[in-house]
Amino acid sequence: MASKVLRVGIIGCGEIAQVGHIPIFNFLSLKFRTTYLCDASRDALAHCARMVQGGSPKTTTDPKELCESPDVDVVLICNGDESHVICGILALENNKWCLIEKPLALCYRDINLLIEAEKKSKGKVFVGTMRRYAPAFLEAVDEVKKMGPILYARVRAIIGPNSNFVSQSTTYPQQFSDFTDEDKHIRAEREKDVVETVLRDEFGVAVNDDSIKMFRMLGSLNTHDLSAMREIIGMPKSVLGAYLGLPGIYSALFEYDGFCVTFESGINAVPTFDAHIEVYGQDKIVRVDYDTPYVKGLPVTMTIREKIKSREGQESFGFSERVVRRTYEDPYTLEMLEFYECVVNGRPIKTTAEDSVKEIDLWKMIMKAGEHNYKSQSS
Question: How far is it, in rounded angstroms, from Cα 284 to Cα 277?
């Protein structure tokens, strides 16, 4: 049977749309077709329109026009973080499902507005934390559930400059700068409003260059890490301490019932991608390793190390190690297939707007614990 083809409107024609989303929709042409593009840059619209296969998409600089179009079934929102909620509400007001790239929202005020809009809509919100759809990760979640009490865990994301990986993606993304002064002003004012709202009013921390940079790093680089951490071991009780110096490597210590978790992240100049979650039990260690999502065919793997059971009458000193690679399909593609199942076949959404509230909870806990790193500066 021929499957239903979802007509997609994309808001935001920047790097991730060019490297990830448009090529994936081209590959998944039996399930998706890009019919509308929106961006403030007309040059970006022209470039991305040429990338789309299966027909020339309509283009616009107005998100409202795209969301109202009868030629759009679902909306992919991957523009600036500060505009995610605004565009998401537009899609929901037109009863459109929307996949919103991470971070879904940057403050409680905005995410609550989105949740209220979703309640009044026939559309739904699907949050793009794609690492949580990798088969190796899902299998690791099951392994951790079966391993008994957790003794310790580690969450790491220390990577080289993203340009190293993007330049080798064979998608050759382009950057454009034909934005009007009004567009630049609107974006700057939105970002200023959101950052001041979350840091000053909701988190109660100093608003200065250091705190803003740290907050933006948590939202951009670490949403994937912290979201996956929550699924595999749950929400921490507190953050016992944090060092949040930038530029460089920053870290935090999460407190759980009966164990702690170290979180370490940052960007340096070495072009490596070290992103993993490792969970330690008494007789088993479960680890999930991620590679850059910008290069196709690099698998997500699960490694299990466990104590070998002793033979009858003999003590065992060894351990076994196995590496599980379920697929070479990248998490972005798998996420889109999951999104399709949710829209067309009614599969429940895992990465909901309500689930993403916990991301802001974690950012707040980390920023408060590391406040000594930036509170001495004037607000």
Answer: 14
What residues have CB less than 8 Å from 207, skipping those under 6 apart? Answer: 195, 196, 199, 200, 379
| Residue where a domain terminates, one of 97, 129, 161 | 129
Residue 79 to residue 84: CA distance in whole angstroms: 7
CATH code assigned at 98: 3.40.50.720
pLDDT digits (tens, 9 = 90+) for 86-101: 999 999 999 999 999 9
**In this predicted structure, what is the pLDDT of residue 246?**
85
The tens digit of pLDDT for each residue in 280-318 reads: 999 999 999 999 988 988 999 999 999 887 776 666 678
At residue 1 the predicted structure's pLDDT band, cuts being 50, 70 and 90, is very low
338 found inside a domain: no
Structure tokens at 234: 């749950």
Cα 108 to Cα 63, 360, 369: the distances in Å are 23, 7, 19
Gap between the Cα atoms of 162 and 150, Å rounded: 33
37 plus 55 within the same structural domain: yes
The verdict on 107 and 161 lying in the same domain is: no
Domain span holding position 136 = 132-332+350-373
- Tally Cβ neighbours within 10 Å of residue 132: 23
The percentage of the chain sitting over the pLDDT mark of 90, rounded to a whole number, equals 88
The answer as to whether 98 is a domain residue is yes
